[in-house]
Amino acid sequence: MRILCTNDDGIHAPGLKSLEKIARQLSDDVTVVAPETDQSGVSHSLSLNDPLRLRETAEGHFAVKGTPTDCVIMAIRHIMADRRPDLVLSGVNRGQNVAEDVSYSGTIAAAIEGTMLGVRSIALSQAYGAGGRGAIQWGCAEAHGAEVVKKVLGLELPRHTLVNINFPDCAPEKVEGVAVTHQGLRNQELLSIDERRDGRGNPYFWIAFARAPFTPGHGSDLWALANRRISVTPLKLDLTDEPTMTALAELFD
């Protein structure tokens, strides 16, 4: 099996090293193609007005000055064009990618692009909590990642379907199991704008989320992580709302 590893946190991200460890438990044929710099939150964007710069950082490791989507296209259509990958693994993201994160995430977008190009694709993310980025328990994803991916590969996924895996913020031995989940929903009232002032008194702003008690929907990806379970969520590219399509069709019948 030939595996392409990518991410949105950049070529030097610790999560990418964790992902490569997971990939090498599955195959010896692993190629890494990742953004030159952090591309978190760029979603499924393409670089259409700037050229893509490519450099080999080590044998089988390439940095692309572009987005995660650019990286997957560059890998499949150029770097690995002689023999395309059998699997795209994207991650391990620094922080969970659940609920609305799916729409913003470059990690998910890389898996979407792989799926669009006809390659089975899986996104992996490691949640972290109040300890912040300095206390991320990468060992959780590293300990459980390969086995979860193996089980997912045992299923013949429908065309245009990818899988989103999230690991809870806990030590590997504290994981309470695996939950197959649906995409959750957060309370968007917690989304806010944090206004600050620079040294000259000029305003600048951060997008922020307030911390407040929140009960995630049972069976959702948010619920799984809150209960120390590995969340496995199938996602599909077709965003059509079929019930509403039927209702609209009746209006124009």
Distance between the termini: 50 Å
Question: What is the strand content?
Answer: 25-35%
Low-pLDDT segments, ≥5 res: none
Q: Describe the biggest sheet?
A: 9 strands, mixed
Shape: globular
Which structural class do the helices and strands define?
A: alpha/beta
**Strand line-up across the major sheet:** 3-4-2-1-5-6-7-11-8
Q: Give the number of DSSP strands.
A: 11
Average of per-residue pLDDT values: 96
Helix content: 25-40%
Q: Helical element count? A: 7
Radius of gyration (Å): 19 Å
Order of helices and strands, N to C?
EHEEEHEHHEHEEEEHEH
Question: What report would you give on this structure?
Answer:
The chain has 253 residues and is an alpha/beta fold. Helices cover 28% and strands 26% of the residues. The chain has seven helices and eleven strands. The chain has helices spanning 14-24, 68-79, 101-104, 106-116, 138-153, 221-226, 242-251, and strands at 2-6, 29-35, 54-58, 61-64, 87-94, 120-126, 161-167, 178-180, 191-197, 203-209, 230-236. It has a nine-stranded mixed sheet, with helices on both faces. α1 packs across α5 (138-153) and α2 packs parallel to α4. The longest helix is centred in the middle third of the chain and has 16 residues, at 138-153. The chain is globular.
Give short descriptive properties of this protein.
9-stranded mixed β-sheet; 28% helix; alpha/beta; 253 residues; 7 helices
Walk me through the topology.
Elements: E1 2-6, H1 14-24, E2 29-35, E3 54-58, E4 61-64, H2 68-79, E5 87-94, H3 101-104, H4 106-116, E6 120-126, H5 138-153, E7 161-167, E8 178-180, E9 191-197, E10 203-209, H6 221-226, E11 230-236, H7 242-251
Parallel strand pairs: 1-2, 1-5, 2-4, 5-6, 6-7, 8-11
Antiparallel strand pairs: 3-4, 7-11, 9-10
